[in-house]
UniProtKB/TrEMBL annotation:
The organism of origin for this protein: Anthostomella pinea
Domain Serine hydrolase, first and last residues per copy: 14-65
SUPFAM superfamilies: alpha/beta-Hydrolases
A Pfam match: FSH1
Protein name (record): Uu.00g037440.m01.CDS01
């Protein structure tokens, strides 16, 4: 059987080569390193990051600007993926 190990930017670089959208809270006390760690594994030219003022939750009606920004980067990832599909 193969060996399992955790991916890391230092050892693996940016192995995820698809368009991605990364959204996390600046005050995430549950998993504070997960967002930044995963983001670094994705190609920098194909990723977008939005860090909202909340914690470990999806932005909601209390912060409409955060919802709009999250939707914008999700749409950008979809547009990039669609464009790459036809290249």
């Amino acid at each position: 059987m193969g060996r399992q190990r955790e991916l890391g930017f230092e050892a693996d670089g940016e192995p995820i080569g698809i368009p991605t959208a990364h959204i996390w809270g600046a005050n995430d006390n549950l998993y504070p390193t997960f967002g930044p760690g995963l983001s670094k594994l994705c190609r920098s030219d194909l990723r977008d990051v939005f860090i909202h003022d909340g914690g470990h939750e999806i932005p909601g009606p209390k912060d409409q600007q955060a919802v709009l920004e999250a939707v914008q980067i999700i749409n950008r990832a979809i547009e990039r993926a669609t464009a790459l599909q036809y290249m």
